[in-house]
Amino acid sequence: MSIDKQLPSTRTTELDSICLKAEVIPVIAIQRIEDAVPLARALYDGGLTVLEITLRTDCALEAIKRINEALPQASIGVGTVLTPAQYRQAEEVGADFVVTPGTTEALYRYGVTSPVPMLPGVATVSELMTGWQYGYRRFKFFPAEASGGIKALKSFAGPIPEARFCPTGGIGINNAEDYLALKNVMCVGGSWLTPKSLVDAEDWDAIRLLAREAAERFHH
């Protein structure tokens, strides 16, 4: 497939430059627009400079705009992208990268032409091979724990050793290190850094401490 030869070296390099900045990428669902900037700033100040904002809430796109303006140095990913239309929305609000929970042919086709790199979600070797055909070499592994976790990733490394992953789903402070020890894992995604109780209480200091703990503990 000719695509295989063209796209990916630049895309892979772009994603590597983002994902290798931080071993841990907080996965954030903004429920209240007024929380967006202080929450993102607390994570950033704690040392986590790559953030994934999911499109699961009504105010997500506005939140991403505000975070981009307030923290221009942060790398902002737009997550839970399900369609090319949502991919376009992510481009419009200034996303640095796009993350999908799974992937369709339409998303792969769109991603190949987009100026914004995509981290496509896969859970099986077959899905990985489909992405490979389109020239993708970096993937989100989701839902990580439910899809076989560390054992699955070790198995993927046999037939496709060049692929690298950001596992997300069921990852927390207690198992992140085990994932990061794998050669084909470049970073992990997790929602444990933004517990609902702390966000509801607007306890940005506590979130900054959680971020600092993660940044220091998992820094390679």
Quickly describe the structure:
This protein has 220 residues and is α/β, with parallel strands linked by helices. 44% of the residues lie in helices and 15% in strands. Strands 5-4-3-2-1-9 form a 6-stranded parallel β-sheet, sandwiched between helices.
List keywords for this structure.
alpha/beta, TIM Barrel, six-stranded parallel β-sheet, three-stranded parallel β-sheet
How are the SSEs ordered, and which strands pair?
Elements: H1 2-6, H2 8-19, E1 24-28, H3 36-45, E2 50-54, H4 60-70, E3 75-79, H5 84-92, E4 97-99, H6 105-113, E5 118-119, E6 121-122, H7 125-133, E7 138-141, H8 149-156, E8 164-167, H9 176-180, E9 188-190, H10 196-200, H11 204-217
Parallel strand pairs: 1-2, 1-9, 2-3, 3-4, 4-5, 6-7, 7-8
Helix pairs in contact: 3-4, 3-11
